[in-house]
Amino acid sequence: MKKQFKKLAVLVSVLALVLSAIPVSAKAQTHPRLYLYKQVRLEDMSVTLGWFQPSMDKVKFSQARKIGTVKAVLKDSYGYICYKFIPKKAGKIVVTIKYRSGSSSVTEKQPFTVLKYTNPVSSIKLGNTEIAGSRFNKKDKINLSYAKFSRQNNALTVTAKKGWTYNGAIIVNKKGKQLSETSVNSVKAKGGKGNYVLKLCFTNDKNQGRVYTEVVFK
Q1: 52, 91, 160, 177: which has the fewest Cβ within 10 Å?
Q2: Residue 84 backbone zone (phi > 0: left; psi -120 to 50: alpha; other: beta)
């Protein structure tokens, strides 16, 4: 009897080890839908899906409709890789993310709605110069005279269209490196033609999607 009990205890222990090695699937977690606007000439806004260690997490991404790509963009010193969703065309999509977390198998779903470029600018005023918002109807980047706006500080006033909020502007160079530490309220072009860029950010009040526009001084 004692011997049989020992055998039973061993079998129970082995069964417990086997069961612990089998991934436990949890109910898929669905995140709130995110809205992204396509840009015209500027780089499209990407969204971080997560940081994973591919060899350990066994992460996989899938989407029913191919309206964007999932790309590994960064790797840290611990071997974690940052994956981002980059939109390619307008439409609705759900990106499914499957990975291991300890002994559990996790499934996350991230819905996206990718919208066509929309002009958020009603008007921009630099010093005494009024820039019509209609200049951004079909493109998100325009050029202004470097010579004219490099002579003095020009106060910046931005009016967003109804349904949009102006979030502020920064200065970047032609490579996209930020030159201003905070949002700017005046402009005096410097650094050479084409190397001083005013980058403005707008948010849609309804869906919180963002659109960027640029003014390049050439």
Answers
A1: 177
A2: beta
